[in-house]
Amino acid sequence: MIAAAAIWAIFGLAMGGFFLSRAFRTAVEDNFNTTLQADLDGLVAAAEADPNGGVVLEERLLNHRFERIYSGLYWEILPEARGQPVQFSHSLFDHLINIADTSSVGSTTWGYAEGPENQRLRVVAQQVVFPISATPNKDDSRAYVFMVAADLAGVDSETDEFNGTLIWAFSLLGVGLIIAVLLQVRVGLRPLARLSGALARIRDGKARRLEGTYPAEIAPLVGELNSLIQHSEEVVGRARTHVANLAHFLKTPLTVLASEAQAQSGPLAEQVQRQVDAMRRQVDHYLARGRAAGALDVLGNRTRVEEVLDDLVRVLARIHGERGIAISEDCPRSLFFRGERQDLEEMAGNLIDNACKWAKARVRVSALPEGAKWRLVIEDDGPGLKAEDRERVLGRGERLDESVPGSGLGLSIVGDIAKLYGGTLALDSSPLGGLRAQLVLPALA
How many domains does the chain have? Predict the structure, then answer.
């Protein structure tokens, strides 16, 4: 918008300046021609005929510039009859006027000529006839062409001076117009910048709706966006309700089947028990993924990490209290997770619970910011995992040891939810002697 306005302003000012310059020069030339015509009339008025048809001038009636050599104002009286002398002003000195590029206006002829010292002259000429009284024939006469010429340097000088003033004035005007357009666009688009900032606050979880007062042109857009956000939340809420209902519907029959299988003996009961366990694991796995994927579509999710870790450490310390597991926690209060609290509880809870199950006496939980992300590190002093076993646990959710209760899908679910948020889960050895799980997730500034 600014560029287009600047181009049109420059083009308009250039065209306006061009026509103003032409109009000014035309006015100056018209004034110059009027003065030149007046000098010609004065020359004709100062001329008198002698008895032989010659021309006698009354010098006192003429412009004094005709007397100064190369003054820029000249006259010449050219007889039409051959053999008659040409009369010219003292200012011409040793030059004559050779009119060219002529045009006629009534009895007056206008043209141009080259004057002394390469002067460009504007010339006006008129034919005057004088009677010859010295002859018996009273109708005898002699014709002359009276010419007055003036240097056009004055016209050029005035035009150049005007053009210089015009260029400076229009340049300042153009800069002023561009600055005005710039301010107008910036001020006019400022509500859109506020709208963008409000959307960023929602995306970062600092607000749930577009807040503030907006101009009438943008207010409908704000209303539609708020309606869309509310609709999205309602759709995700209904989807989560359906997911919870589905989980309850599936788990109840699976529990019944597991109970019946445990009450029986034989190969069929064992096969049913294995298939029920596999179904439970798959249900837990995909329901967790579905819930996390739905949470990503809701704007404004914002969770304080410290609060979630405090709750999890308190609960898990009580659960594993009989084994004497000590859980330490280190997390800055200003750290926020850009996502659902329930998903963070799912991921961190699985990791901390897994560490407590395998730890001998100590589990260390720490969270630290890393630019636009943050890192959750959970370590234990248990037996750890070999490098070749870590991929099996993360990728396929295999249980490597049946002695500890659980489905074996905890780490796999954590990895899947982390990927949905654009994060990562990595396993390596801990300085405490056991396993170290590192979860990287998006953070809020």
Answer: 3
Q: What is residue 420's predicted lDDT score, i.e. its pLDDT? A: 81
How many Å apart are CA 262 and CA 256, to the nearest integer? 10
Q: Is residue 189 part of a domain?
A: no
Q: Write the pLDDT tens digit of every residue in 302-342.
A: 788 999 999 999 999 888 888 888 999 999 988 888 888 88
Taking the alpha carbons at both ends of the chain, their separation in whole angstroms is 33
Read off the CATH number of the domain in which 416 is found: 3.30.565.10
In terms of Cα–Cα distance, which of 367, 285, 356 is closest to 327?
A: 356
Q: Same domain for 326 and 443?
A: yes
Q: CB neighbours of 54 closer than 8 A, spacing ≥ 6?
A: 130, 142
CB under 8 A, 24+ apart: contacts of 156-159? 158/28, 159/21, 159/24, 159/25, 159/28
**Residue whose tokens read 């967790």:** 288
Is 63 part of a structural domain of the chain? Answer: yes
**Domain, as residue range, for 20:** 2-159
Report the percentage of the chain scoring pLDDT > 70: 88
> Domain end: 276, 300, 324, which one?
300
Contact 425, 415 (CB under 8 A): yes
Per-residue model confidence (pLDDT) at position 279: 79
Ranking 192-196, 295-299, 302-306, 374-378 by mean pLDDT, the lowest is: 295-299
Place of tokens 């009276």: 146
For residue 410, pLDDT beyond 90:
no
147-151: average pLDDT: 94
Asked if 119 contacts 153 with a C-beta cutoff of 8 angstroms, the reply is yes
Percentage helix, strand, coil for the chain under 3-state DSSP, each rounded to 5: 55, 20, 25
Burial degree of 149 (CB within 10 A; 0-12, 13-18, 19+): buried
| Residue 86 located in a structural domain | yes
